[in-house]
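Sequence in, structure out. Go.
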Amino acid sequence: MSWQRARIRSGLGIVIPAIALSVSAYWSLMLHWQACIMCWSERLLLIAVLLGWAIDNLWLVALAPAAGFVVASVQWWMQLRAVHALFCSATAPCDVSYFRWGPFTTAGLATLVFMVLLLLAMDRFAHRPTQSNLIPFPRKAS
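Output:
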């Protein structure tokens, strides 16, 4: 049963960032929404998460969603409060969202995606094999 759970977890770890990257590419390429510097950093962190799950790198699986969650949360706060940061450009400001559904903006959706990826990473760390499970100990003959 645990190998099925591990396969589902790694499948979700690959599918979720792939869908998020596809939606982000659709918004940029088809709808011509301008991506800000924070959006680009979130995209790069999604690529890092995707790569981490694909090659089964535990640190990349854990740290990239944590960093993405922080960046997306800050951007979501900026969009909800209309706070303009110094590093945002005039052509693609970080505090403007093209999508708004109640309290959710594009950064709010990214925050939810990174939160789910962070929960998957925490589950991955909680169920990693210990050293004693990897190396069988010799048993005494009875």
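Check: The two ends are 31 Å apart (CA to CA). The chain has a mean pLDDT of 79.
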